[in-house]
């Protein structure tokens, strides 16, 4: 009788054999291989030997060792600049037809971010996934999904470049390339979507509003709030539900929603569901796929390879600039509760590209994240390490406590009496005492951030505030040519942009 031999595999091998198909590490490596294969014959792929990387046993680590990290200036000057001249096969096969214009919120010059047909297809797939996930929301009014949706975005009438490409806001590019089956539900419709002047577009939407049965709105909170306020005022109604009774949810992204929530609630007759997504000019990164999720689930299997750089002094200088060779982790190496800057490699020809956002994993198993700020949008003059997340939370708490709406704010730091100070600029049309407002903000920040609390007793000597009408922020954005669509007011002011902001205030609001 033959003896049965019991062979026991090493734990590591046994574990590897049982890796499920939806394992995040496997999903990401599959995406990376697909991207490398597609771009092997491009100039970029040839220079960094994508063919050799594909033959490596450890493709992720080999990719990280061979390919350098890029911020926008580096990849634009070395690679993307040529694509604007019509040169094909630079960082992605073929010519680039579309460019998303992005300023990142602080730089004055527009960035040209390539948008390929493959990226547009990936974005559409993720939109469909998010829409399907909405049915998992317990408190979502089901009839809202079957109604029309209002997408407040950039003009679909894009600017044309000499080499035959088109450029504009990503939302305008997406709307221009919307699939045919969107037409029945999509508002404001093709004619209004083409309008470049933001004020003209809003006025057209206001005129048409009663003719539409809107179930949900998609857009950046500030502009969507402004649109609803204009409709309510124009038709002399109490809430937006008097015009759109089936409005059930709001899909938003780009900025933290907490500072806007109080203002939104004042415009509603009944609660609506807020659904967050993470759509950048470089790609559709994630979305909240369940009602009580703490964060957004990263999309790991749809043509974006992600890396995560610990957001600390080892990898970034005091101005938020990335060092030359930062340590970068793959999805299976990250830790919960830590802040990371995001690197992306995509099917639009971005390679190890720093998009400027900082993330924190709040559920490591589900790979859910929250956006905590921007690499260059935080204040740490004396070690206070004040993040945009801290600022947003403090404003949310103060808004609730004082029952006021603060739709916009920004903060600057500067030397003051041999030490340092912060100055807050707050948009608030409600009546509130400035001294009380800054006192409450300061108190909440001390509770939220231990470093800030320590420095408030030493080097951070004073915190000032200037309360302004909301129109001040909007008019400043208009002077910069950034009114509407995806443009956001920077939460932290530094350098030239702060100087321009002060000049604008001195000219327009000196005797407010």
Describe it for me?
Residues 299-364 form the GH3 middle domain. This protein is of the alpha/beta class and 512 residues long. Helix content is 35%, strand content 21%. Strand 14 and strand 15 (368-374) form a beta hairpin. The radius of gyration is 24 Å and the shape is globular. 45% of the residues are buried.
In short:
With about 500 residues, the chain is an alpha/beta fold. It has helices spanning about 10-15, 25-40, 45, 50-55, 60-65, 70-85, 115-135, 140-145, 170-175, 190-195, 200-210, 220-235, 260-265, 390-400, 435-450, 450-455, 470-480, 495-510, and strands at about 100, 110-115, 150, 160, 165-170, 185, 215-220, 250, 275-280, 285, 295-300, 305-310, 340-345, 355-365, 370-375, 410-415, 420-425, 460-470, 490-495. It comes from Flavisolibacter ginsengisoli DSM 18119.
Please outline the helices and strands:
Blueprint: H1 11-17, H2 24-39, H3 43-47, H4 50-54, H5 59-66, H6 72-83, E1 98-102, E2 111-115, H7 117-133, H8 142-145, E3 148-151, E4 159-160, E5 166-168, H9 170-176, E6 186-187, H10 190-193, H11 198-208, E7 214-219, H12 221-234, E8 249-252, H13 258-265, E9 273-280, E10 283-287, E11 296-298, E12 304-310, E13 339-346, E14 353-363, E15 368-374, H14 388-402, E16 408-416, E17 419-427, H15 434-448, H16 450-455, E18 460-468, H17 470-479, E19 492-493, H18 495-508
Parallel strand pairs: 1-5, 3-6, 3-7, 7-8, 8-9, 16-19, 17-18
Antiparallel strand pairs: 1-2, 4-5, 9-10, 10-11, 11-15, 12-13, 13-14, 14-15, 16-17
Helix pairs in contact: 11-12, 13-14, 14-15
Domain GH3 middle: 299-364
InterPro entries: GH3, GH3_C, GH3_M
Domain GH3 C-terminal: 389-494
């Amino acid at each position: 009788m033959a003896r049965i031999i019991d062979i026991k595999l090493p734990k590591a091998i046994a574990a590897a054999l049982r890796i499920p198909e939806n394992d995040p590490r496997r999903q990401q490596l599959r995406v990376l291989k697909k991207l490398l294969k597609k771009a092997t014959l491009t100039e970029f792929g040839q220079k960094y030997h994508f063919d050799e990387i594909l033959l490596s046993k450890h493709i992720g680590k080999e990719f990280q060792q061979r390919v350098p990290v890029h911020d926008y200036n580096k990849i634009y000057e070395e690679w993307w600049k040529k694509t604007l001249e019509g040169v094909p096969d630079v960082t992605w096969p073929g010519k680039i037809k579309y460019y998303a214009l992005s300023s990142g919120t602080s730089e004055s010059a527009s960035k040209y971010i390539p948008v390929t047909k493959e990226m547009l297809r990936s974005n559409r797939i993720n939109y469909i996934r998010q829409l399907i996930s909405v049915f998992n929301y317990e408190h979502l009014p089901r009839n809202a999904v079957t109604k029309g949706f209002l997408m407040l975005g950039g003009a679909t009438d894009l600017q044309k470049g000499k080499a035959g490409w088109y450029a504009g806001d990503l939302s305008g590019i997406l709307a221009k390339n919307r699939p045919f089956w969107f037409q029945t539900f999509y508002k404001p419709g093709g004619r209004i979507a083409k309008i470049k002047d933001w004020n003209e577009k809003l006025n057209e939407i206001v005129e048409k509003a009663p003719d539409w049965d809107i179930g949900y709105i998609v857009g950046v909170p500030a502009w969507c709030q402004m649109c609803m306020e204009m409709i309510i005022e124009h038709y002399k109604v109490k809430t937006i539900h008097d015009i759109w009774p089936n409005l059930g949810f709001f899909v938003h992204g780009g900025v933290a929603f907490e500072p806007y929530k109080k203002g939104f609630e004042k415009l509603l007759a009944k609660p609506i569901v807020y659904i967050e997504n993470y759509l950048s000019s470089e790609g559709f990164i994630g979305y909240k796929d369940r009602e009580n999720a703490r964060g957004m689930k990263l999309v790991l299997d749809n043509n974006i390879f992600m890396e995560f750089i610990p957001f600390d002094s080892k990898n970034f200088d005091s101005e938020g600039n990335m060092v030359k060779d930062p340590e970068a982790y793959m999805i299976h190496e990250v830790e919960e509760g830590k802040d990371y800057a995001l690197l992306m490699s995509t099917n639009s020809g971005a390679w190890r590209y720093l998009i400027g956002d900082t993330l924190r994993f709040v559920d490591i198993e589900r790979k859910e994240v929250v956006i905590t700020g921007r690499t260059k949008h935080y204040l740490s003059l004396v070690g206070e390490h004040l993040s945009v997340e801290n600022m947003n939370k403090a404003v949310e708490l103060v808004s609730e406590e004082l029952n006021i709406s603060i739709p916009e704010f920004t903060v600057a730091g500067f030397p003051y009496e041999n030490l340092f100070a912060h100055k807050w600029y707050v948009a608030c049309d409600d009546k509130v005492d400035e001294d009380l407002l800054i006192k409450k903000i300061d108190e909440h920040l001390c509770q939220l951030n231990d470093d800030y609390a320590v420095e408030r007793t030493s080097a951070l000597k004073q915190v000032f505030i200037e309360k302004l009408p909301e129109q001040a922020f909007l008019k400043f954005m208009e002077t910069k040519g950034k009114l509407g669509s995806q443009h956001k007011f920077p939460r932290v002011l530094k350098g030239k942009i702060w100087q321009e902001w002060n000049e604008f205030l001195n000219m327009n609001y000196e005797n407010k």
